[in-house]
UniProtKB/TrEMBL annotation:
<dbReference type="InterPro" id="IPR006077">
    <property type="entry name" value="Vinculin/catenin"/>
</dbReference>
<dbReference type="GO" id="GO:0007266">
    <property type="term" value="P:Rho protein signal transduction"/>
</dbReference>
<dbReference type="GO" id="GO:0005737">
    <property type="term" value="C:cytoplasm"/>
</dbReference>
<comment type="similarity">
    <text>Belongs to the vinculin/alpha-catenin family.</text>
</comment>
<dbReference type="Pfam" id="PF01044">
    <property type="entry name" value="Vinculin"/>
</dbReference>
<dbReference type="InterPro" id="IPR030045">
    <property type="entry name" value="CTNNAL1"/>
</dbReference>
<dbReference type="GO" id="GO:0051015">
    <property type="term" value="F:actin filament binding"/>
</dbReference>
<protein>
    <recommendedName>
        <fullName>Alpha-catulin</fullName>
    </recommendedName>
</protein>
<keyword id="KW-0963">Cytoplasm</keyword>
<dbReference type="InterPro" id="IPR036723">
    <property type="entry name" value="Alpha-catenin/vinculin-like_sf"/>
</dbReference>
<dbReference type="GO" id="GO:0007155">
    <property type="term" value="P:cell adhesion"/>
</dbReference>
Amino acid sequence: CNVSSIEYINTFACQIITILINHKDKPKRSDKTLQAIQRVGQAVNLAVGRFVTVGEAIANENRELKEEMSIACIEAKRAGEIIAQLTDVANLDHPESDGRITIFTDKTGVVKAARLLLSSVTKVLVLADRIVIKQIIASRNKVLATMEQLEKVSSFQEFVQIFSQFGNEMVEFAHLTGDRQNDLKDEKKKARMAAARAVLEKCTMMLLTASKTCLRHPDCESARLNKEGVFHRMRSALEQVIEIVTDSRPSGENAMAPISIYSSIKEFKNKVEGLRENLYFLSKENLSTMLELILEHTEDFTDSAYTSHEHRERILELSKQAKMELEQLVSVWMQAQSQKTKDVTEDLEVAILKTCQCMNELKRELHHAATSLTADLLRYHADHVVLKALKMTGVEGNLEAVAEYSCKLSEQKEQLVETCRLLRHVSGTEPLEITCIHAEDTFQVTGPQIISAAETLTLHPSSKIAKENLDVFCEAWESQLSDMSLLLREIHDVFEGRRGEKRAYLSLPRPGKHNANLKALKPVKLDTEEQAKLGKLGLELNLLTSDVESETEKWEDQENEIVRHGQSISSMAHSIYLFTRGEGLLKATQDLFHQVEVIYTEKIMIKDDDKPLLLLEIDKLIPVCQQLQITAKTTVQGKNATFTKVRFKTFFRTDDLKTNTLKGTKQVQKERWESTGNTDRQSQVNIKIVK
């Protein structure tokens, strides 16, 4: 349905009732006021007309709800017409004197029409919502049915045909659930939906390679377990989506979510500070029980093998201090109650402040312990040494080495799972708690799947399909580590009080900064092929974003201009990736196009005085890199020649640096050749350098 029409209708109906309730009997009415009233009435009627047109179209497509929807549309249309008639007062000199019924003479009629409008619009929305839920359930059922066929296939040809159908059904399901996720108002449900859709997105490729591996090696037990794990996880994610959409839970499932320390500390502080208003609204036993629960949760930190000794000692010290502060608070509190004082005494105020301060220090220490542990762990595993070793030893068919590195991966998995649990305690918001739980589940499941895929490759070292399967699962692991970096930053932002602030590079184009050079774009609807292509590009963009983030984190000076511009462009690119998943701040295709143009304009601007110097240095760099390339490929003989070649190779210690330098230099040179004769040649070169 047209969102702007709905908002206009609802806003008008609510405001008109409020205005009429506060309306004076004989207010002053200018011609300007009368014309404004008539314009508003006509606008509401037009909005209702558009809304009803959509409702009638939905009714025609869904016969089981056609009668109810048609009645609601008729009521809405009638209410819109009544409001238009009652507000048609602009051409009347004296609205009360000519006998016509208007907004001024029949307040009751206007209120009834506004209420009828609200109720009918709400009824249409509820019916439309039921239809959307039905569409999602039907789409889920089609996906499940096709998955059952995929599990039973025995030939590659049959598998390819069925998987093609499965891909189309998954695209349809992704669009329906993406729209639903954007419509959800509950942030907790939205986070759960995002987690489930992320699982389905990543598992689709895993299902492809795992099934192919199982078909190629039907007698391999590890391949079979690998495939079954993917199917099980996808089914669980599909069920979670339906639970969110229908707002239901499986029978017997505990509705209580895990309690985090942050939420417990917040509730405890609210109770303590509430003593200022009322000394008798709770008992000392309640406060003691709440503190005991908080300190019990801190044992997750103190008992963890990965918490540093310094953090453990500090947490224990603050826990002991919190008990002492509460005892002092209870003593002063009981004394104030015995004296039957109504106002808070000075001693009680001091005790309240000390208790809250101690809890804040405990909260800060827990945050520091969890985030520092996560940062260290992500930094330590950034090179993915274990994954690379598993791939290499798997191709070699070395069973002993694969078993050894599998144990190391299991240890890494346990570290990451434990870290996710600690992060959940300090996440600060329910959506972030859910994201932590999703990360924990992902590491818990993906670790064993990587090991089973590696075992399959070890048993069949020459199998390209088995190698591809292991690569896909390793990429999922690496992707989750990148997501952990983003999660860590969001948790830190919440702790620092930056929750809800939109950084400049995350926002849409702002008036006066970017909009001046942006062309007005017409809404564009992409077909299925274009949408699939856009999704693939989005994934590639997300991988590049992760690379940029990991590089910028290595800089000591985070305020450096290059770092800030890099982070700005990276974050805008990430928002484009989220758009391809139906998430984030970009809501429409036009927003996407605007964001792309903003990225183009957010390049590092080089001062005019520096341009000649930069071009001069580029001229020096090109022949040096060409000489390096020629020397590296030339076969040498003799002591001096060998020394020269080694010296060049040592200068560029890694193949990546050499390759990137040559690529960049060639690209700049190409741009300069292509831009010969262009008056803005230097600007083009500068843009290409940034790219």
